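Researcher: Good morning. I'm working through a list of sequences from a screen, and I'd like to move beyond sequence-only analysis. For each chain I'm collecting a predicted structure so we can compare shapes side by side. This is the next one on the list. No need for commentary yet; just the structure.
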Amino acid sequence: METTDLSTVRWIHGALDCDRSTDPPLQVVAADEDTFVIRQSKCVDFEAPFVYLLLGTETALLHDTGATADADLFPIRRTVEDLIAGRSLRIVVTHSHGHGDHWAGDAQFTDVPPGSVAPIGDAEVAAFFEIEDWPTGDSTMDLGDRPIDVIPTPGHLGDHIVLFDRTRGFLLSGDVLLPGRLTVRDWSAFRESMSRLARFARETAARGRPIRHILGGHIEMSTTGELYELGTIYQPDEAPLPLTVADLFALEAMLDEAGEGPRSIPANRFVVEPMDGA
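Model: Good morning. Structure tokens for this chain:
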């Protein structure tokens, strides 16, 4: 199976003048023949979220749908159908969390069978994945010879989840761990989530299934560790998308040292930023 080194990919990253940009509305990179990383253009929406398509033998899982509902501006449904053409797969849509830049494209999937699009909200997400004892419980969904672990990780938002693809070693971390701002709305929940996620990383490695890449929902940082301004539409020197287990363990240690009092924590690959009232 041919694979792409995601740490070397040059992503579409916006333009100084979007009226003159030649970027497509989205960029598709095949990590392998059954795994696709999709980035929305910053000239369509400055958030430029990453969307993930994982194909099993029975199900095509689209994790997040981007920041734009209009299929002419952001053709995520058509792109998914093109990528799975020739395969008899059910499409299932899930979300890292309930912020609109991760589910706006759901509007393009209104005709899929009932139960194929995950809801938002912590109670609704827990019910969809049949997770008992939210957020300390977890669950597994099987795409057909491709089991995906579902791990609740509130703190950025109450319904946030992280997915672990056992067959590839990819941890899809949404907005709780990415090269950029880790915005924290609930400090206590975030600390507990990162501790639980680090524990999961150690346990899955002990089972012979180590995390290879941590793949987040955005890139908001340059290669020199500088944060891009919120709302920017041009990021010419972006840091690589993948983070590592070492970054997760470093975050765990920083949060443990910080204790119960929310505070900003700068690091080489991310910056923790608690919101007022966190």
